[in-house]
Amino acid sequence: MDVKSFIHQWCTKKNVIPEFESRSTGPKHRQRFLCELRVEGFNYVGAGNSFNKKDAEKNASKDFIQYLLRQNIISPADVSGVRIKSFSSTHLCSNQTDKC
């Protein structure tokens, strides 16, 4: 499962809808996309950016999952099956032996 699917599945269980808002910035030849993820009932806004909209949404999802982990709203075991391609300064658990 990828991170965006996890967010949608988690929100469905909580009966809330994730809202992704993306916008482009910069010149056309070096355009970047900024994405904000909001979930009703949470003051936190997940943020992500990338050179394409899809990856910006994934990065915002990763950021929101990190928030949920920090707040102990979900446990590392909850995200053990989530596929993470890359994390620079943060890390999500990719299997049950990882320590978060």
Automatic annotation (TrEMBL):
The alphabetical list of record keywords is: RNA-binding
Biological process GO annotation list?
regulation of gene expression
Q: Name one Pfam family in it.
A: dsrm
- Domain (DRBM) spans 2-70
What is the superkingdom listed in this entry's lineage?
A: Eukaryota
User: What GO annotations for molecular function exist for this entry?
Assistant: double-stranded RNA binding
- Keyword RNA-binding: yes or no? yes
What name is this protein filed under?
Answer: DRBM domain-containing protein
Q: Which organism is it from?
A: Laodelphax striatellus
